[in-house]
Amino acid sequence: MQYGRTTLSKFIIEEQRQSAERDEQLTALINDIQTSCKYIAAAIARGPLQGAHGSNATRNVQGETQQKLDVAANEIMLRSCEWGGQLAGMVSEEIPEPYSIPIEYPRGRYLLAFDPLDGSSNIDVNVTVGSVFSILRAPRGTEPATAEDFLQPGSQQVCAGYALYGPAAMLVLTLGRGVHGFSLDPEIGAYTLTHPNMQVPEETNEFAINASNERFWERPVQRYVAECVRGKTGIRGADFNMRWIASLVAEVHRILVRGGLFMYPRDNKDPRLAGRLRLLYEANPMAMIIEQAGGRASTGRGRILDLVPTSIHQRVPLVLGSKSEVERIERYHREFDAGTDEAFASPLFNAKSLFSGDFGFGNRG
Ligand code: MN
Ligand code: MN
Asked: What pTM did the predictor assign?
């Protein structure tokens, strides 16, 4: 066993020492978050033994079926983070309104938004899931937080991170000075620095998208995917692999380690929704992490971190990963919106769908 390795607690203290923004409340808050993630990791690992897998009859604010572990992970985050006096309020995927800090506890100067369990439809098949969190400053100090207080652009985040419950449990975070990954050492129960200064590799031949939604995508996305699928014989001149785990945390982690592109774009499957993923506790924290690692995160039409949220559970289209690939998709959106997208006019383009048949692009409009 190696002694004296950098645990997450040690890393945060040393990080704060080096920065001008030394703040013990923030250190304590990140400690409470990592405690939550250890509890959740343990609950997931013991899940099938305790009958904690499976779904509840309940639905969350998004109308999605709640898994038992969605509810348990939410409780764990609330109980672990409410008591310490660092928070003015919390927003969770599983709660319609902001969570008020109980009056028996002091309040602090930070806001926490989280997805307690991401990818929870993967639980029963024992595939990697995670938790995602975002820390903001409370704009009105220690006053009880309102929904409006959370409506800050992602560029204001103080810290963003995710925990990943996979073959190894990990916690990856950024405080705005690079992205660092910690692996949970089960022998001593401590997240330990194993992936300092993670960088999104620029070279990529992988993309991830739920291809069953192909017919609902906007044409810039259809164009991008069609070009990748055409491989060596197409305009990209290279073969690509397609991935889809249906867990944002697992997708982002793969991109941090191996490069690539993830898309949950806007589509017309449900015209009421602007996208699938939630801005405050999915897109924003992941966008900060990806940008801090040298990548890019976009709606396809603009930088995620510049968006001013309009509601706490707002959904957005999300394209993130290797910078040049995200920029290519943004260019395809610009060309489409400007009507200068020559690829669509070309007979070469109107060849094949992903799996067969015609793309059926129809008329522009
Ligand atoms: Mn999620
Ligand atoms: Mn979730």
From this structure: 0.92
